[in-house]
Amino acid sequence: MIRLEGVRFRFEDLEMRFDIDVPAGSFTAIIGPSGGGKSTLLSLIAGFEIPLSGHVTIADRDMAGLSPDQRPVSMIFQDNNVFAHLDLWQNVAIGISPGLRLSSGQQAMADEALRQVGLMALRHRKPGEVSGGERQRVAIARALVREKPILLLDEPFAALGPALRREMLDLVGNFRREKQLTVLMVTHQPEDARYAADYTAFLEGGRIVALRPTPELFGARDLPALAAYLGDWRN
């Protein structure tokens, strides 16, 4: 579903090169040290960054020249997922129409998305009146109404506690199976990858060192950089 071939990008002194195949319908996590290029990888797929060379293809279609809104991708960030001046329903509906001019059918779509994430009763509240977890649920609901087959998660649950992170991962996992989404998630929490991801990639220094089924990657003894990154965590 997602393929990067010889994709080069430079940020300050770091020269990155990405080669990866993400299976269609999978939940793939990306872990690794800070500053290694994890968020940049997602931005290259989404179209927020343009590679110096190489190809980003999605469903065998080259993404070159396509802006973020033209790509079959939704992205949820750690911050700035909601608009403070809009209520929760409007924050979801804006994913369908930036001008909030919705047909009755589209209004029903926004209603249903809020129901699915358990927020219909709070639909008229502003983001500042709800919890961090509820704001992230709004971001998930907005991604659902966009009906894009790929969901990119750039540490969206980092500020949440362990129990709430697991709740959010369950929610994403349920939608992934229901809507046959391909999910790619950057996380600094290895336990989140082990809990939710079919595959996990270890990225360091602008390179993908390994991409393997999650249990296999965390059990690997042939990746010293991974062992140094995880420390005593997997013991």
Top keywords for this entry?
single chain, 235 residues, alpha/beta, Rossmann fold, 2 domains, 4-stranded antiparallel β-sheet, 8 helices, 34% helix, globular
How would you describe what is shown here?
This protein has two domains: 1-72 and 148-235, P-loop containing nucleotide triphosphate hydrolases (Rossmann fold, 3-Layer(aba) Sandwich), CATH 3.40.50; 83-147, no CATH class. The longest helix has 18 residues, at 162-179. The model has no long low-confidence stretch (mean pLDDT 90). The protein has a six-stranded mixed β-sheet, sandwiched between helices. Strands 2-1-4-5 form a four-stranded antiparallel β-sheet. The protein is an alpha/beta fold and 235 residues long. It is built from eight helices and ten strands. Helix 3 packs across helix 4 and helix 4 runs parallel beside helix 5.
Blueprint of the fold:
Blueprint: E1 2-11, E2 14-22, E3 27-31, H1 38-46, E4 53-58, E5 61-62, E6 73-77, H2 88-93, H3 104-116, H4 132-146, E7 150-154, H5 162-179, E8 182-186, H6 190-196, E9 199-204, E10 207-213, H7 214-218, H8 224-230
Parallel strand pairs: 3-8, 3-9, 6-7, 7-8
Antiparallel strand pairs: 1-2, 1-4, 4-5, 9-10
